[in-house]
Amino acid sequence: MIWNNFRKDDARLPTFINEREEKHYYETEATEKDYLAWYRQHNSKKYRTPSVTVDNVLFCYNREQDQLKVLLIRRNTHPFRNSWALPGGFVQPEESTDESCLRETATETGVSITSQHIEQLHTFSTPNRDPRGWIITVSYLAFIGEEPLTAGLDAKEALWFSVVRKDDMLHLVNGPNEIILNFQTGKTTAGEQLAFDHAKIISKAFLRVLNKMYHDPKVLRLLGQSFTITEARKVFAKFLGCPHQTIDHSNFKKALRAELVELGEKPVGIGRPSKIFTLKENKKK
Amino acid sequence: MIWNNFRKDDARLPTFINEREEKHYYETEATEKDYLAWYRQHNSKKYRTPSVTVDNVLFCYNREQDQLKVLLIRRNTHPFRNSWALPGGFVQPEESTDESCLRETATETGVSITSQHIEQLHTFSTPNRDPRGWIITVSYLAFIGEEPLTAGLDAKEALWFSVVRKDDMLHLVNGPNEIILNFQTGKTTAGEQLAFDHAKIISKAFLRVLNKMYHDPKVLRLLGQSFTITEARKVFAKFLGCPHQTIDHSNFKKALRAELVELGEKPVGIGRPSKIFTLKENKKK
DNA sequence: CGAATAGTGTCTATCAGACAATATAAT
DNA sequence: ATTATATTGTCTGATAGACACTATTCG
Q1: Protein footprint on strand C: which nucleotides are under 7 Å from a CB?
Q2: Is A157 annotated in the active site?
Q3: Cross-chain residue pair A136–B28, CB shorter than 8 Å
Q4: pLDDT tens by residue, B217-246
Q5: Identity of the residue in A36, A40, A125 whose CB atom sits nearest the CB atom of B97
Q6: Residue B132 sits in the same domain as residue B26
Q7: Which domain does B55 fall in, by range?
Q8: I need a labelling partner for B16 at 20 to 30 A (CA). Which of A134, A251, B259, B260 fits?
Q9: Full-model pTM
Q10: Which of B51, B76, B95 sits opposite A49 (nearest CB)?
Q11: Which of A160, A180, A211 is the last residue of a domain?
């Protein structure tokens, strides 16, 4: 490579004996503008860079079935062809990973969510976590208000798996498909395997919710705009792995009263009418 | 599929009319081994990928000065030449971002830390956060046991800045250099500016420590292997922005007793001998 | 002894959790 | 009225925080 031949048209610029001298000149003596122009032309493809993906743990809750669910897709391409995996995709230029998460969620599930609904979990970068090569993933957690279309998009099979906690195990079930993983270790223990390190990601998401529920009950966005105390107890019970009756109504309400706003009464239903609540929005993270 | 037009180098493989057909074949019909071989050869350079860096918020605490400090380097290259910035660098192939963090910390400060000392903070990916182009950074938080060499390495000036909290402001000071930032908004308000979005990263680190201190007092690693209750109070006071005397000794000890192990007594010093403690290690995250 | 430092004990308002009582509506 | 569901109220043990007291060492 000829190092003294960069931008002949610009007489301001000196010539260089070697690459190191040129680098030093642009990094320390040239103007920032000249540096950036030089960098884009010479440095941008010099080093190997990883691909970056997002992987999204999308939870929803179905009131009728009283089931917590997580969205998985069956991969129809290599690698991990026919394995279940989290939805996600490659981050594109000129977008943040937050935006990637929202874009992928919208295209894969048809549900529009905002940055208020998502939360960055962790960035996974273990070498060889993806057999295709150097691929880093930024994982996200999102709570979908109501169960949307379950039909797959992008020519993939996309299904909601019910999530049942038993001790430290999560049972992800949809019909004949069953995946069992330990969310303390992040490993699948029986049944089908998950693609890549997605068992770790799901575990991290579940633990995050569990640890923050009472302090930051964002998980109640699973119930949409408004909900009753009992509905909130049912959602918490899914993460605690217990029947919702074991969560005392009175104590639960006391614990969360600071995070909730009362909206009115639910007009229909058996028994005393429930009051309906919504999450306070003014929380500054 | 047409099998009558074999490739010379591998008779097993078919030829394709167009790129799309080829992609479809490898993704869905070929073996995974063949797919991966094809992917590496054809797909690896097809899409633009970002550079990925790590940025490390390294805190230390000096007992003699009773000062919390954060390590900043003065950049001697574009972009942000002469601005103060967090130490960090590009993630290399075949290493995780955790390993990058440890490697960069070792080379920039001379201090060897283990994965026990670091914690991933957040991945920042706002477009144009770096004028050089598409650069994503994974930020880390680390607690250095004792103040190491302050001399810069890598031909950069590296200095420990004392960190003083006043209300929502952090004052980062080293001699004539002073940077003031609001850790609630993540913005510098006066004095010198920080490079890139590093004010946001430092703010995130400070808030993370503040929110988790009592629940997960990993911050006490600032005090090395062992410490007295009063030393621990002094560290907490730095993050709370108050004199350590306002933290009641008795109540503080009660709050942290579950996280500490008593080692013995400190033999020297004025007044009643202090007991020395260390952090319990058995915490599973 | 007195000053300085640090560990220990006590009191109280508050709160989480267990449990009881009341309110409403469908059958 | 009975039953199911939900809300409201009460009691108690535990705890955080304020404060007081005791223990040790140095000058």
Answers
A1: 3-10, 16-20, 23-26
A2: yes
A3: no
A4: 999 999 988 999 999 999 999 999 999 989
A5: A125
A6: no
A7: 51-211
A8: A134
A9: 0.88
A10: B51
A11: A211
